[in-house]
Amino acid sequence: MSHAFALAGRSFRGLAPVLALAALLLANLLPAGAAAEKLNILTKAGPVAVNIELAVTPAERAKGLMYRTELAPDAGMLFDFGVEQPIYMWMKNTYIPLDMLFIRSDGRIASIATDTVPLSTETISSGPPVRAVLELPAGTVRAKGIAVGDRVEYRLFRDR
């Protein structure tokens, strides 16, 4: 079967599959939530700035950081579940060890899981109900002095 692609009146026979593959590869390289945003974690040692990607839809939350082989030291992914509820995470198909911050609706960190095991299907529980989970590169919590009770400043969280 012959494929043709037209652009500005010109025909590019056989180029359609190549362009489709390029678009697919590019889409898989772009992070969930596409545009990176910033948040701050207010610790006793001072604010910690994090460049975040958002995982809001069920599909984005299901994929999360799966299949990635690296994550910048100042980057993370924020999973927004919309309402406070018990949250259960796992590391299936996730190659990067992570620290997970479980965050209440008011922005307070309710619990923390550190140095999660890549590729594990073991359940990681939030403990108390939370609205969101922030995944960071493993070791960030220890290195930055992040603790339960610290507050995350971001538009999703409201002060109480």
Automatic annotation (TrEMBL):
InterPro entries per the record? Answer: DUF192, Saro_0823-like_sf
Put simply, this protein is called: Uncharacterized membrane protein (UPF0127 family)
